[in-house]
Write a structure and sequence with these properties.
binds magnesium ion; binds threonylcarbamoyladenylate; globular; four-stranded parallel sheet; 14 strands
Amino acid sequence: MLIQQAISVIKGSGLVAFPTETVYGLGADATCSAAVSKIFQIKNRPLINPLIIHVASIEQAEAIGVFNQDAYALSKLWPGPLTIIMPLNRAASIASAALAGLTTVALRIPAHPIALELITESGTSLAAPSANPSGYISPTRYQHVEEHFNQEDSGVLTLRDPVKCQYGLESTIISVTDEAPVILRSGFIGRQLLESILGKKVASAVPSSLISAPGLLGKHYSPSVAMRLEALNLLDCEVGLNFGQSRLEGNFSLNLSKQGDLIKAARNLYSDLRKLDNYAVLNSFKAIAVAPIPLTGLGIAINDRLKRAATS
Ligand code: TXA
Ligand code: MG
């Protein structure tokens, strides 16, 4: 079975791409520096950008991070699309390259059964960023992963799920390292839910102040061609991404959700951006125009990703 092969790849310090409920991850044994280095190398990821450590149980997480009351409260959302940043447990044997030398650690229990089986059966925690070259659009289908990292050339084994990732946006990241919790990356789990669980206000980090999270800065999730947001019409040189009733029409265009459903839109976002990017490159269009998307609920996370994708 492929999963057995994947387990031996992890045990042999290799890389396995696996589906999660958010996006595909590119996993390596988090306790092995040689394996972790391969992730940075193959993704061309800046060494200052720490990785999320994926575990399968609270006990496994407790051996790696120091849980305070907030962390325990939020861990009720696990398995699920939430990453919690907390102080590193000094007794943990995580490769320091995975943490980019920080004394905090980002932990997550993913909900996808394949991810959970891989972690459990490998008998270790997995350091896993999204399975895309650094800065490019995150993968929500196995075909996206294999476009960049096919097994023959890259040695990455991909565990395939026939369907698109459930949420399609990376996990919400919250830091509970200090008394006042801070959202470092928005996602499916929104501020309201976090505040109701914690029983206190939760702040959002302003991107430019994110010294502790280098990967959350600036350009990210970007297609090869330019992007134009809040577009109300389509220029000759553009392909279009619609939402709801918007009418970016004329050239090639897609709609994230004709019904204006933000959950559906999030799930389609990265695969639609990839389709538009590929089409634009092949047919010499210069940019992707994106219709306005409401800044409510999941629209906050969608707009956040679009803004970073459009940063040049
Ligand atoms: O949904 C997800 O979170 C996916 C799946 C595969 O789990 N993973 C993912 O990983 O999106 P990545 O590497 O693409 O994004 C992780 C972000 C990075 O921007 C990194 O800077 C931040 O988490 N991060 C990791 N450890 C951190 C820490 N100790 N302090 C602050 N930020 C941290
Ligand atoms: Mg990423």
